[in-house]
Hints:
mainly beta
Amino acid sequence: MKKLAFVCATTVALTALAAEARAQVFTPTFQSTRRGSDIGLYLSDGPGELAVEGIWRRGFGTGDLGLRAGFADAGDGDVLLGADWRQPLALGTAPVDLALTFGAQGALGDVDGIGGQVGVDFGHTFAQPGLSITPYVHPRLALVSALDDNSGAELDVLADIGADFDFAPNLSLRVGVNLGDGADWGIGLAWRR
């Protein structure tokens, strides 16, 4: 119980220390601890008021690579491009599953910015006949830079709480809520292969 209280207190403290980036480029990661191959369509509220992204993920070895592209209504509009890597870790931490994540994302257009991030996913899959749910917490460090000024890059602490709801033979509903600055929510539907 003391370990759980320490982890909760640390997560809250790190999130409170996060500074708002001049150019928020990160949308929710939609990355639980489970490796996968899928293609999906996602909506979120950032950057700007609404972002629409397509994300393609493919398993390679013990990890998976995700490529994303989309559009955000920031300013007069931005094109979103990104890539991420998820590597599940086998550290004997059952019942909590872990995955190491890396990602890069850019917003190009009216509000230009780029960023890179590294994090760790904590989650677990609860499977029932016809439905499995994978809730997760995904804290990460991000380096973000606005391309339209010379102020340099900022280090941010980001964290998502999310869940994957796997239903039907090959469909997943994914939701994510941000604990820090940036996109507050995201939702999407993915077809698993």
